[in-house]
Write a structure and sequence with these properties.
Layout lengths: L1 H19 L5 H24 L26 H7 L1 H5 L6 H6 L1 H19 L3 E8 L5 E8 L5 H4 L4 H5 L5 E3 H5 L11 H13 L2 H7 E7 L4 H5 L5 E7 L1 H4 L3 H17 L3 H16 L6
Helix pairs in contact: 1-2, 3-6, 6-10, 6-14, 6-15
Length: 286
Amino acid sequence: MGEEVDRIRAKLEKLDDALLEGRISEETYRELKEKYERRLKELQSEIGAGAAREPARAEPSEAAGLPPGVQETLSPAALAFVFDDELFGLTGLQENLFKFNRANVQVALMAAATLLSLEADGHVEIRPGVRGRILKSKTVMAVKRRPFDPREYGVLSEKIHQAPVGAEVSVYDLIYEKSLADKLENPAGYVVDRVLKGDLTPQTYDFLFYWEERELKRSLVDRMLGLPKSVSVMRMHVENAQRYRGQLEELRELFSRAAREKPGFFNRVFEECQSALYAMRAAEGF
């Protein structure tokens, strides 16, 4: 049964390539995709029926005892940032990315969480696509199906919210801001800060995060150059973050389902977010 699951996943991946390369029509793509995904769900249900279930864990009530002004729920992107390590493990991305490129991974997780949440609620359809008129790149497209309240899905959903029904918005465009091209020293930090400041109330931000000064070891040359003695590092109130674990379980299920049913989804999201961040990065001086 496991071999058949692998074969269907391979067919789904080849199907995406066939659409992108123009070898099949969009109508044929939809028909075959529905057929393969239906069979994949049947197989996964059969596998799941035979697996032993883990005992349920008691989770804290999300809203119980929250201070005034603290949100009962987080946007998909903010939730992905808070629980980035757990969600990353579901993506199938290379493990060293999280260790050496965590900020960019966080941006990709936030974008993926926004798209998958919008799709789960019926507001968009996620499909493979191509962006660029001359230099074309494979990407992930969100086709808007119906209007929604952007306050529920956060600042990363704004461009989709503004688009007319039926329009396509790429994951690249969710992150990239033309006015900031070649201007940012830390593009990933900018996107993360924009999401957290835009999606969280000040009380929720302080409930989840705090800043800590960390001393730096400076050489004589560093001191002569006037480099700072310390840097501010954002830390998380881990116990407070657990108030949102119930909401996390829903997002974990969306990530797990995407990993099973959307071959290559997380790789393309990460690559496109990388490209968008790079396009906003300021050129280094010589």
